[in-house]
């Protein structure tokens, strides 16, 4: 072929397409090598050396820059235009800007950060000194951390620690009494869900309901509502129950098979999965270790969630996966993320818009920007909270799963989104709910049970249930499509290219659905969904929907490029 020919002429063309070439006896033969060369071909002239993927990536990046420029500009304009009408804006420390602290979780965490850091630093110092001086192992360290944690809880909850100790003791009795029963799962779940609902309905109980002689204790309820934190304790109670139950059943972990796939375990270290799946000795399931696990101070308020087996193993032998240097770097990155969120709340007042009714006065594009901003704020907020407590846990020798291992803007389907948003909770749900319910064999039914539990676990609110059921409604088509696509194999490069485009379109639809469900759950509420849909179906709303879809399509394609780049790095 001559150098002056066009790109299209680099392969002999046939009537049936450029990926088919003439073979012997004039039959059309599929040439995989030539088809791949045509799909990934460089063009002549100025384009020499660049594949179509590289040019596509350049165009995608340009679009993304324009998209975020528009989002940032309109966000700044909205914040400036309405700041006088927005609630909970307080004088900030950055460039004389007001600071949006309308989110109660972030406001409380940010305000208590200095005292929290001091307390946890003292706890770590005491625990490490005692372990070093007396060569303490699991049993001794469980007593040390139990005493430290009880002092911590006494400050947080005051006299309400009695309610916590009473409930967890009852759960310990239930687990020990029924662990070998065939109805164990039902008994454990009924007990814990009943406690969870009762705590919420009664709002933590009142001592006066026991008797007037106890009423004076209602004046000493601490600084933090105990039944809010108890949601995480409930997960740990179920984890202890199942791990103890499975230890009795002598379920053995295939360590040899795992080591063939796990680089950490092959190098002599122990990864989280091996710690979780390997049961501790039966003598390790003691009441002291159980209480220490439930109330462990660094993880008590917000997690991340860790199984009992993994916790007890690391309390005996501290984690060696992360070196001191890596933990210090982890903390430095946390500081950078903290300043990023501070910048965000000083310049973009997304949450203040979400907590008041001003969004009704805005155009569809601005409503989308606020919803998108709230979602990104929530991701960064939870990343900071969870990584803060995980960092202290690592310092104490306990490794937990990373709750936010992936950026929210790098998830193009619901399954990957939920695997990477509160990932430790996802692992907990898979181990203690999804698998016992039947796993992938009953996936279409299981998602409804799991997300309903997730909504109830968070709070008894209708908007959370609507969010959960909307998510299930959007997830079922994705599950069906994925299972159908997996049945077919890509036979040629064009099929792979076509499948990539279809995946990008599906990703755009999925992200749009995710935005709608989160708008319903966290911004406008389920009661305003009809209003939003009617607004979006107007002339200007349809244009916005089309623009959103194109933007999410571009975003999904960028995610594919990031994934490909990571895979190429692993091969090097």
TrEMBL record:
Could you confirm whether the keyword Transmembrane appears in this record?
yes
Coiled-coil ranges per UniProt: none
Membrane topology of the entry: Multi-pass membrane protein
Transmembrane residue ranges: 57-76, 113-131, 143-170, 182-202, 223-242, 287-306, 327-349, 369-389, 502-524, 544-562
Q: Which UniProt keywords apply?
A: Acyltransferase, Membrane, Transferase, Transmembrane, Transmembrane helix
In alphabetical order, the GO MF annotations are: acyltransferase activity
Q: Name one GO cellular component term.
A: membrane
Transmembrane listed as a keyword: yes
Q: Which InterPro entries match?
A: MB_O-acyltransferase (IPR051085), MBOAT_fam (IPR004299)
**Gene Ontology biological-process annotations:** triglyceride biosynthetic process
Q: Which organism is it from?
A: Anthurium amnicola
Q: What is the lineage of its organism?
A: Eukaryota, Viridiplantae, Streptophyta, Embryophyta, Tracheophyta
User: What protein am I looking at?
Assistant: Putative membrane-bound O-acyltransferase C24H6.01c
Location of this chain's protein in the cell: Membrane
Q: Which PANTHER family match?
A: ACYLTRANSFERASE, PROTEIN-CYSTEINE N-PALMITOYLTRANSFERASE RASP
């Amino acid at each position: 072929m001559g150098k002056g020919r066009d790109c299209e002429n680099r392969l002999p063309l046939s009537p049936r397409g450029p990926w088919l070439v003439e073979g012997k006896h004039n039959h059309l033969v599929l040439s995989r090598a030539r088809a791949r060369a045509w799909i990934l071909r460089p063009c002549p002239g100025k384009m020499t050396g660049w594949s179509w993927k590289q040019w596509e990536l350049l165009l995608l990046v340009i679009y993304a820059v324009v998209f975020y420029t528009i989002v940032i500009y309109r966000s700044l304009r909205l914040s400036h235009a309405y700041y006088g009408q927005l609630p909970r804006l307080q004088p900030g420390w950055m460039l004389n800007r007001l600071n949006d602290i309308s989110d109660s979780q972030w406001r409380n965490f940010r305000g208590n950060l200095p005292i929290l850091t001091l307390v946890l630093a003292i706890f770590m110092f005491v625990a490490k000194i005692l372990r070093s001086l007396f060569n303490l192992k699991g049993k001794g360290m469980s007593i040390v951390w139990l005493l430290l944690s009880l002092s911590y809880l006494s400050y947080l909850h005051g006299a309400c620690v009695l309610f916590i100790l009473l409930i967890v003791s009852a759960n310990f009795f239930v687990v020990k009494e029924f662990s070998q029963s065939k109805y164990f799962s039902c008994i454990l779940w009924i007990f814990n869900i009943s406690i969870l609902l009762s705590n919420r309905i009664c709002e933590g109980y009142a001592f006066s309901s026991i008797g007037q002689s106890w009423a004076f204790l209602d004046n000493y309820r601490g600084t933090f509502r105990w039944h809010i934190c108890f949601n995480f304790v409930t997960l740990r109670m179920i984890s202890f129950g199942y791990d103890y139950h499975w230890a009795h059943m002598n379920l053995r972990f295939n360590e040899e098979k795992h080591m063939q796939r796990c680089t950490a375990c092959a190098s002599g270290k122990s990864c989280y999965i091996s710690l979780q799946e390997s049961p501790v000795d039966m003598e390790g399931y003691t009441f002291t270790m159980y209480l220490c696990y439930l109330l462990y101070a660094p993880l008590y308020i917000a997690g991340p969630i860790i199984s009992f087996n993994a916790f007890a193993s690391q309390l005996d032998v501290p984690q060696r996966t992360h070196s001191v240097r890596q933990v210090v770097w982890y903390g430095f990155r946390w500081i950078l993320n903290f300043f990023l969120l501070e910048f965000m709340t000083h310049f973009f007042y997304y949450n203040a818009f979400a907590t008041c009714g001003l969004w009704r006065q805005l155009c569809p594009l601005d409503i989308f920007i606020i919803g998108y901003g709230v979602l990104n704020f929530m991701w960064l907020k939870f990343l900071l909270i969870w990584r803060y407590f995980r960092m202290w846990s690592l310092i104490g020798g306990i490794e937990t799963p990373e709750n936010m291992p992936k950026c929210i803007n790098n998830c193009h389907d619901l399954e990957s989104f939920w695997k990477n948003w509160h990932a430790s909770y996802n692992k907990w749900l898979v181990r203690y709910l999804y698998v016992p319910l039947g796993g992938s064999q009953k996936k279409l039914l299981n998602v409804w049970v799991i997300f309903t539990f997730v909504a109830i676990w968070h709070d008894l609110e209708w908007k959370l249930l609507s969010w959960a059921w909307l998510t299930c409604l959007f997830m079922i088509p994705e599950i069906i499509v994925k299972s159908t696509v997996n049945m077919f194999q890509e036979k040629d490069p064009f099929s792979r290219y076509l499948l990539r485009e279809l995946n990008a379109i599906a990703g755009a639809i999925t992200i749009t659905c995710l935005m709608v469900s989160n708008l319903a759950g966290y911004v406008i509420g389920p009661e305003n969904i009809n209003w939003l849909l009617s607004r979006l179906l107007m002339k200007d709303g349809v244009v916005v929907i089309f623009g959103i879809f194109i933007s999410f399509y571009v975003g999904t394609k960028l995610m594919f490029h990031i994934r490909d780049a990571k895979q190429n790095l692993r091969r090097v």
